[in-house]
Amino acid sequence: IAGNNSLLSNLATITYSAPRVEVQRLSPNVIIANGGSAPLTTPLYPAVANTVRLRIANTGTAALALSAVPPVTLGANGPVVAWVVEQPATIVPPNGQTFIELRIVPTGAGALAVPFSFACNDPHAALFSATLEGFVPFEPRMELVEPAGRVVIDGETVLLADRLIGRATTVEFELRNAGTAALTGIAIELVAS
Predict the structure, then answer these.
(1) Most CB atoms closer than 10 Å: which of 4, 122, 166, 192?
(2) Other C-beta atoms within 10 Å of 118: how many?
(3) Does residue 173 contact residue 189 with C-beta atoms inside 8 Å?
(4) Phi, psi of 70 (to 5 degrees)
């Protein structure tokens, strides 16, 4: 019987070593569960690129290995295009981390989703998959574009330093609708000083 107790005592000291994946959306920080979702930042506008950084952490006691090439795959549902700008490292040591950078560009108004996934050796999440979700509102969005092609920010002063004082001059700005609904009731105020 003493030998059996010794065997049980030895079994009790065996520890299980395994990786453990955790995914976090940065700015704002949101932990994303396997099979879950996280919101995209708002507001979203058509043709305006959004950069999303995700952190893949290994909270386990063995190295986490991402096994596909490339490691992360993306989808795009709704009015959106998306691609991976920065792929994560394929090996993440215990208590280590790596990052994914995604570029997401809405192409119109409405609900959109960007599912992503990666295969790894976490026994509880061998295929980690989640979705980033957002909504592009049906609304106008006025942009004023200066002659050099730069969009003027609301309330910003535009300097016309290369114009001769005392002489008539023409400066053309482009007023455009970068939104998803008609732009009406436009009023423009010019202030010279």
Answers:
(1) 122
(2) 23
(3) no
(4) -70, 160
Q: How far is CA 55 from the centre of its chain?
A: 11
Q: Is 87 in contact with 118 (CB distance < 8 Å)?
A: no
Instruction: State the burial class of residue 132 (Cβ atoms within 10 Å of its Cβ: 0-12, 13-18, 19+).
Output: buried
DSSP-based three-state secondary structure for 177: strand
Give me the mean pLDDT over the 160-182 stretch.
Answer: 75
Percent of the chain with pLDDT over 70: 87
Residues 6+ apart with CB under 8 A from 138: 109, 110, 180, 181
Residue 60, token pair as written in the block: 């386990």
Q: Is 63 exposed, middle or buried (0-12, 13-18, 19+ CB in 10 A)?
A: middle
Q: What is the pLDDT of residues 131-152, one digit of tens each?
A: 999 999 888 888 888 877 888 8
Cα–Cα dist 9/67, whole Å: 37
Q: What is the pLDDT of residue 106?
A: 93
In this prediction, residue 11 has a pLDDT band, given cuts at 50, 70 and 90, of low
Read off the pTM: 0.71
Per DSSP, helices labelled H in the chain are: 2-12
